[in-house]
Amino acid sequence: MLAEGISPEKIHFVGNPMIDSLDTQREKAAQSDIREKLGVETGGYGVVTLHRPSNVTEPTGLERLAASSQGVSRASRYARAPGLR
Fold first, then answer.
1. What single string gives the DSSP state of each residue in the chain?
2. Could you give the CA distance from residue 58 to residue 38 in angstroms, rounded to a whole number?
3. C-alpha span between 21 and 49 (Å, rounded)
4. Per the CB 3.0–4.6 Å rule, which of 1, 50, 52, 81 could disulfide with 6?
5. Domains in the chain: boundaries
6. pTM above 0.70, yes or no
7. Which residues of 9-48 are buried (b: 16+ CB within 10 A; e: fewer)?
8. Contact assessment for residue 46 and residue 40, using Cβ atoms and an 8 Å cutoff
9. Which of 34, 39, 43, 35 is nearest to 76 (CA)?
10. CA distance 14 to 1
11. How many Å apart are CA 43 and CA 74, to the nearest integer?
12. Could you give the angle at the alpha carbon of 67 between the alpha carbons of 17 and 48, nearest 5°?
């Protein structure tokens, strides 16, 4: 924003909606039994958010994401946002 000429006093950090949403639902998710119902081991899965319209409004975007996720190994370590366990 500074590079676009916006003065520093007009710039305010308001948070990260995806991380804020995760934080508000963390306890509820921890209490859920959905993994057992689906037969999924704890830690044996990854979570992907597809909240950007360009990812889901056109079939090719969603197909591209699905194809790229197929190559992810169970042994992979996933990047985590700072402050998350």
1. -GGGT--GGG------HHHHHHHHHHHHHHH--HHHHHT--TTS-------SHHHHSSHHHHHHHHHHHTT--TTPPPP--TT--
2. 29
3. 12
4. 1
5. 45-71
6. no
7. eeeeeeeeeeeeeeeeeeeeeeeeeeeeeeeeeeeeeeee
8. no
9. 43
10. 14
11. 9
12. 20
Contact assessment for residue 79 and residue 46, using Cβ atoms and an 8 Å cutoff: no
Which tens digit of pLDDT belongs to each residue from 4-28? 999 999 999 888 888 888 889 989 9
Residue carrying structure tokens 């194809």: 67
